[in-house]
Amino acid sequence: MTQPAAHEPHDEFLWLEDIYGTGPLDWVRGQNARTEAKLVNAEFAGLEAGILEVLDSDERIPMVTKRGSWYYNFWRDKANPRGLLRRTRWESYLTDSPEWEVLLDVDALAEAEGIEWVYAGSAFLRPPAGDPDGGYRRALLRLSPDGGDAVRIREFDVEDRAFVDGGFDIPVAKSYVSWLDADTILLGTDFGPGSLTSSSYPRSSRILRRGTAPAAAEEYFEVPADHMLAFAGHDDTPGFERDVAVDMIDFFNSRTHVRRDGEWVAVEVPTDVNVELHRNWLLLRPRTDWTPAGRTFPAGSLLAADLERFLAGDREPAVLFSPDERTSLQSWSWTEHYLLLNLLSDVSSRILVLDPAAGWAGRELADCPPLHSVEATGVDDEDGDDYWLVATGFLTPSTLSRGTLGPGAAGTGTTAVKASPSFFDASGYRVEQHFATSKDGTRVPYFQVGPKDLVCDGGNPTVLSGYGGFEISRTPAYSGTVGRSWLERRTAGGRGGVYVLANIRGGGEYGPAWHRAALQANRHRAYEDFAAVAQDLIERGVTSRERLGCSGGSNGGLLVGNMLTSYPHLFGAVSCGVPLLDMRRYTKLSAGYSWIAEYGDPDNPEHWEFIRTFSPYHLLQAGTEYPETFIWTATSDDRVGPVQARKMAARMLGLGVENVWFHEALEGGHAGASDNRQAARLQALSNAFLWQALTR
């Protein structure tokens, strides 16, 4: 437990910051029992089972990643709750029942080793040139012992389906790794005292050769301790092999370097310009307006330059995309010859295809229905111009299609490959988009999903969700669990639930300016936006204060925590998950220091003056009528950590607020769950609480 500075506000619940202490865990178990006694009953069991059926469904799309001629997938279901790493061939994948070759059974591994492993990803070694099968044999697997961000990295042989005897094996830590060659990796990890940043991430990347202990690895790239993290990786693209290092200064500022003649050469752009290297191309996305050589490139645009010419001093990039007030760039992806841009226009998807060989000439794909989310990504940027297309909507189950790009308007179009099933009857519902007016006059979009025959008399149980941070966009997406646990439920009077998603500032729905509008001292704008949506729902008669709940996790937990403390008159219930809530001490807890760029530094007196206005833990006041509140977290969350949730619930109870409920999963990491069973339990608890609070 970190001790407070003398000038910090009194905190009577610091003892709960001892995450694994006997006293705090006894308190947690007591609160869990209290909450479960309230929520877990026969109706809850049916709700939980229905959610788990969705999560475990064998009819879900097994999304794949192409490596050589194999298609890899990680899969969890009822029989394999911790999951299977597996692969198949394309012809088999096209069938209704692909023949999967199981490479690693994580449940069997957990049982054999006595550790509840959670699979967290892999990094494959490129096969030797001329491999007739294109097979990727060796991989570095990331395995978390508890679902947290800290992982053990182990070398795995895909053909032998076994960990390599004497292979690379990095102890549990927040580590980053990249293959340099078959016997060498670039590694960032906890190398001992002084090797981590203030954000708890590696501050150096080192060269580790096979048979060498991590402590003896050779220093390769290092950043100051007060930066967020250091990363060095090897680009193994044939003909463009190079080492690249990134100094992550904070969440939104970084410096990219390329290794040349034994030295690191910086890509000279402002630190808030996102940088990507792809073959000979340098892609740049400024987060604020950038004016090199007298020419201004607006925030959120995408630029391209030849890397060698740029490093030599040519600062005249081509403009691939320039945003407008309605349209933003969300992501991009390469095929062998083309660049795909995924855009949002008033939070509906658009996709552009650009051709570098034709001077970046572009055309739009016509596969994006309104009020839906559609994303295009290259299947294999070294092997043809095929692309995946994933489409989803609130009432439209996800579909996976594959298409082929060609010059001009040429191409085969897309062919449906897989489709998710319907988990609820959507025929009686409709999706609407509305705009609320925030306190400063800004139009804030939101989606409303509810019955076609919705009666707007204020009587509909409604849950409002949002995030509003880190330039993360919330877009339409099908959720069988939302359908079953909220839309299809009925009150005693026969009313169904209404689900609302708010696209507030702080997110990325309209690009970096939309995010920047709610940074640090302007954080209140995100909360004003969310409150404006709540007020609009009430004024339109969709719901009322007694029937309106809100739900959010992580930064979204901070969002709804501020609804609880600053807008209690708008909500009848609040579900607050894995949240930031103590903004005085958040930088001293888990990975909190890395978010100073988003929220500000509470140790800076000027910053604390505005931070304290959105620190729910410090905004609680005795005698206030707070809405019903459910606060949930996970002991093993090493990103936000469980202690802010604990302290918030404890302080509310200490103030005599009886309608606050707390639950802490004893495993599961920042997601609160490490398998489908835990996820179903968590979702059922939150939805049971909201339904109970809003329909009584």
Can you name the CATH architecture of the largest domain? 3-Layer(aba) Sandwich
**If helices are DSSP runs of H or I spanning 4 or more residues, what is the number of helices?**
14
Count of DSSP E strands?
37
Computed Rg: 25 Å
CATH topology of the largest domain: Rossmann fold
Strand content range = 25-35%
Instruction: Please outline the major beta sheet.
Output: 8 strands, mixed
Fraction in helix: 10-25%
CATH top level class name of the largest domain: Alpha Beta
GO molecular function, one term: oligopeptidase activity
Protein name: S9 family peptidase
Organism: Arthrobacter mobilis
Keywords: Hydrolase, Protease, Serine protease
What do you see in this structure?
- This protein has 696 residues and is of the alpha+beta class.
- The protein folds into 3 domains: 26-53 and 423-695, Alpha/Beta hydrolase fold, catalytic domain (Rossmann fold); 59-173; 334-420, no CATH class.
- The protein has 14 helices and 37 strands.
- Strands 30-31-33-32-34-35-36-37 form an 8-stranded mixed beta sheet, with helices on both faces. Strands 5, 6, 7, 8 and 9 form a 5-stranded antiparallel beta sheet that branches.
- Helix 9 links the parallel strand 34 (548-553) and strand 35 (573-577).
- It is globular and about 70 Å long.
